[in-house]
């Protein structure tokens, strides 16, 4: 029953209507067939007449049923040519009837059992199932239609899943920027798809599958499509989460269909997005999900079993590689891993270039500056920024996108929309200004910190009352202990300034505190930067490609010691920061007043104040030449 239903589900509406008609016809036919009354020539007679017929020896045989008595009269000499008529009369339950029939020597039998049995049988086993079945089909046919709405669903035999098949993919590697390593490792696959014979001749076994791994929005889906585009082969895609939402047993059927379809289309690419939703490690959870497990098994079987002389490559994407079932990663399955990481500065510039191709840019646009102000942003963010920039240009009544529009877009994407009408009281505004200048000043006065790009006290909707933006000149991959300590001091600069100037502690520093504590914690638990714990790992990082959350790996007693160590780092940093600001109170006051007046000041304006007091810094900080600057995920320090 189950199998049949899945098969039937996929018929289209037209076919469904005509089979409804068949069912109704069959029903009518069976009804006619089972009631003899309608199909022989019969006449009703009275019971009296029946009795007299018996006495006059005109009856050959009778059939007695619960409701009626059928009478076959003896052949009449006169009417030989005519057909004998079957007669019937109501059964009055006459107790003497049997005696009479016996006396007259009439054959009699009771038929009802057989006829009832027949019609009951037909009703119970043929008509009822047909009715139930057509109701079932009607309901699920609807459901099936609903499920397949909103996408170019293919007529894929038995499959309802959203399998997208695209034949002419125009996306190429030129559309994917900043993922050179990933592209390099995928080139082999493209060559394989184009020249499968070459590889088969020599006896090489090519990877059947490659797993694209990286955070969301870095272009995994895009890359998979680009592979299909470059190789000029069909692209069959399905999302792992689609499998899971289905009825029992259907996920596995979908996988089968998918591979069947792929064999028809070979050479081609199968792309399974979000493969982690089916490929979750089977032993990692208490409760198993049979459906998912079946689907996974089917996937494994198909990957092992498909015709290796056909050039089919299975690409899959995930941002959680560590939860994947080991069986999926075995040789012969997804044995290749292609890392699709967050783009670096050069990558970001390239991505911005790709996305601004069709956009009219003004002369003053520097994509490099935009890229610099968005460390940690992924391709999807950058695409979004270009588009927001274009929207802003239209809003500002321009025909070209200016740098200003793009800057605004960065702020929209990264810090929430500018909201000029959010009113702060005069005192609040002063506090915010000193707070931000506190951050900026600490950054300017310490060594090896990222230069200040912008300070603003224009509030954003996302909650920040103002922020200081630091920009690394270059990306950096190694960070020293001193640099981390300085970063913490910059984060604590806001609150420290408030304390120095207003002798007041406000809620504005919560985010700073959180980040400073996190940095201090990493110094203690991950980077081995304290004497107390030497090079002992106290935390390990999980979900590297998602949130990168750290998990504690130590005893409770050690935990307490860790907390003490973190506190001591923060306390020292806090004291040093306050001292630094106290010594530079004149600068703090001067720049804060200037900021209050201007609301937004940029890095060079700000540094002029600093250089006035410390001319020697002009050499060091005016044009920075540090070559190994830190690659930081987030350089915007918000209140
Ligand atoms: P993922 O699958 O990794 O979550 P997508 O491939 O869906 O990310 O990327 C979403 C969008 O972001 C793409 O359609 C593209 O516009 C843009 N994008 C992401 N990465 C890149 C990149 N490296 N180069 C160009 N555009 C990119
Ligand atoms: Mg994707
Ligand atoms: Zn702050």
Automatic annotation (TrEMBL):
Alphabetical list of PANTHER family matching this protein: ATP-DEPENDENT ZINC METALLOPROTEASE YME1L1, METALLOPROTEASE M41 FTSH
EC number: 3.4.24.-
Cofactor note: Binds 1 zinc ion per subunit.
UniProt GO molecular function: ATP binding; ATP hydrolysis activity; ATP-dependent peptidase activity; metalloendopeptidase activity; zinc ion binding
Primary location: membrane
Active-site positions on this chain: 436
InterPro entries: AAA+_ATPase, AAA_lid_3, ATPase_AAA_core, ATPase_AAA_CS, FtsH, P-loop_NTPase, Pept_M41_FtsH_extracell, Peptidase_M41
Alphabetized SMART domains for the sequence: AAA
Binding-site residues for ATP, renumbered to this chain: 214-221
BP-aspect Gene Ontology terms: protein catabolic process; proteolysis
Record protein name field: ATP-dependent zinc metalloprotease FtsH
Subunit structure: Homohexamer.
Domain AAA+ ATPase: 206-344
Keyword flag Transmembrane: yes
Keyword ATP-binding: yes
Similarity section: Belongs to the AAA ATPase family. In the C-terminal section; belongs to the peptidase M41 family.
Keywords: ATP-binding, Cell membrane, Hydrolase, Membrane, Metal-binding, Metalloprotease, Nucleotide-binding, Protease, Transmembrane, Transmembrane helix, Zinc
């Amino acid at each position: 029953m189950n199998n049949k239903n899945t098969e039937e589900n996929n018929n289209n509406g037209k076919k469904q209507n005509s089979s409804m008609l068949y069912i109704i016809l069959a029903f009518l036919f069976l009804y006619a067939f089972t009631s003899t009354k309608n199909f022989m020539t019969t006449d009703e007679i009275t019971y009296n007449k029946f009795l007299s017929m018996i006495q006059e020896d005109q009856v050959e045989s009778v059939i007695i049923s619960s409701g009626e008595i059928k009478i076959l009269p003896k052949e009449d000499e006169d009417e030989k040519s005519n057909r004998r008529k079957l007669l019937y009369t109501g059964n009055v339950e006459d107790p003497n009837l049997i005696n009479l029939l016996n006396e007259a020597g009439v054959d009699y039998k009771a038929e009802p059992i057989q006829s009832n049995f027949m019609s009951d049988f037909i009703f119970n086993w043929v008509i009822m199932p047909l009715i139930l079945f057509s109701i079932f089909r009607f309901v699920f046919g609807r459901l099936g239609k609903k499920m397949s709405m909103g996408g170019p669903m293919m007529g894929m035999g038995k499959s309802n899943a959203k399998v997208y098949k695209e034949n002419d993919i125009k996306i190429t590697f030129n559309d994917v920027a900043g993922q050179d390593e990933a592209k390099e490792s995928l080139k082999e696959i493209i060559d394989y798809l184009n020249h499968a014979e070459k590889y088969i001749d020599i006896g090489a076994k090519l990877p059947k599958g490659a797993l694209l791994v990286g955070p969301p929005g870095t272009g995994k889906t895009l890359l998979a499509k680009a592979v299909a585009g470059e190789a000029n082969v069909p692209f069959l895609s399905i999302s792992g989460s689609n499998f899971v939402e289905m009825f029992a047993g259907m996920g596995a059927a979908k996988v089968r269909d998918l591979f069947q379809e792929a064999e028809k289309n070979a050479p081609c690419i199968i792309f399974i997005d979000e493969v982690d939703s089916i490929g979750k490690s089977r032993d990692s959870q208490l409760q198993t999900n049979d459906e998912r497990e079946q689907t996974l098994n089917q996937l494994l079987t198909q990957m092992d079993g498909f015709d290796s002389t056909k050039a089919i490559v299975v690409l899959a994407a995930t941002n959680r590689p560590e939860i994947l079932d080991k069986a999926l990663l075995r040789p012969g399955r997804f044995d290749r891993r292609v890392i699709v990481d967050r783009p670096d500065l050069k990558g970001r510039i390239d991505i911005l270039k790709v996305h601004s191709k069709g956009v009219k840019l003004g002369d003053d646009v520097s994509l490099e500056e935009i890229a610099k102000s968005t460390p940690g942003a992924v391709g999807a963010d950058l695409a979004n920024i270009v588009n927001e920039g274009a929207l802003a240009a239209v809003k500002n009544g321009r025909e070209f996108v200016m740098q200003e529009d793009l800057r605004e877009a960065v702020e929209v994407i990264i810090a929430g929309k500018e909201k000029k009408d959010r009113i702060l009281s005069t005192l609040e505004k002063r506090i915010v200004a000193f707070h931000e200048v506190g951050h900026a000043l600490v950054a300017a006065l310490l060594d090896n910190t990222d230069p200040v790009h912008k300070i603003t006290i224009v509030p954003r909707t996302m909650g920040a009352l103002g922020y200081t933006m630091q920009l690394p000149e270059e990306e950096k991959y190694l960070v020293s202990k001193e640099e981390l300590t300085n970063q913490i001091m910059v984060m604590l600069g806001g609150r420290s300034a408030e304390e120095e100037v207003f002798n007041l502690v406000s809620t504005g520093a919560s985010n700073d505190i959180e980040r400073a504590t996190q940095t201090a914690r990493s110094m203690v638990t991950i980077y081995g930067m304290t004497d107390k714990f030497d090079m002992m790992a106290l935390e390990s990082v999980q979900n590297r490609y998602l949130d990168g959350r750290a998990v504690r790996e130590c005893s409770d007693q050690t935990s307490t010691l860790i907390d003490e160590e973190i506190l001591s780092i923060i306390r020292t940093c806090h004291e040093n920061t306050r001292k630094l600001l106290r010594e530079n109170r004149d600068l703090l006051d001067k720049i804060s007043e200037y900021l209050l007046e201007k609301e937004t000041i940029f890095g060079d304006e700000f540094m002029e104040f600093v250089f006035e007091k410390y001319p020697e810094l002009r050499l060091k900080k005016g044009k920075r030449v540090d070559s190994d600057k830190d690659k930081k995920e987030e350089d915007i320090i918000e209140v």
